[in-house]
Amino acid sequence: MKKLFCIAAIMLIANYGINKFRLLQKITYKIVGIDISSRILESVVIVTIQFVNVTDVTATINSLITDIYFNSRYLGIATLAKPFTIPANGTVNVDVSIEVKSFDLLRSIIAALNTKVGKFRFQGKVSIDKINSLPFDFDYNLN
Questions:
Q1: Helical H runs in 2-42?
Q2: Which of the residues 5, 26, 32, 80 has an alpha carbon 20 to 30 A from that of 45?
Q3: Is 117 helix (H, G, I), strand (E, B) or coil?
Q4: CA 33, 77, 70, 134 torsion: positive or negative?
């Protein structure tokens, strides 16, 4: 009887792991907004990322760290302020902030937002439901 119970427990745990892995493959993300906040000594680019969960299981994003490039120029590192949950069959918008120290780079981002010509590149890692170090890697074209 104990053997049967152990086998059932192992199968449940394996099934949970497989379902979480499938969940990770189905979560998508896209950029839904870019805003610039400029102060006297610093400028901040705020990127709004929309996470979409098309499964019937909730997902928790525990961490996100990504390098962000604009037109192949390094912009900075964006990190997640706090974990959040994406409901089953739902979406969540999350803002990440990047401090921009180069005035020339900031000027080129503003010009690109006005002309709708430019590309953001995200390269990093995301942790979803305690599964660490999954790639967070995509491009976003302004046009």
A1: 2-26
A2: 26
A3: coil
A4: negative
Query: pTM of the predicted model, to two decimals?
Result: 0.72
Q: E strands, the chain, where? A: 28-38, 43-52, 59-70, 73-79, 84-86, 91-100, 119-128, 131-141
As given in the structure block, the two tokens for residue 58 are 């909730």
**One-letter amino acid for residue 72 of the chain:** S
CB atoms within 10 A of CB 59: 21
Q: How many residues does the chain have?
A: 143
Token readout for 118 is 């430019």
- The pLDDT assigned to 30 comes to 79
The more confident residue out of 111 and 12 is 111
Residue 105 contacts residue 70 (beta carbons within 8 Å): yes
DSSP structure class, residue 32: E
User: Model confidence over 107-135: pLDDT tens digits?
Assistant: 778 788 788 888 888 899 888 777 666 78
| Cα separation of the two ends of the chain | 63
The amino acid at residue 132 is N
Q: In whole numbers, what is the pLDDT of the chain averaged over residues?
A: 79
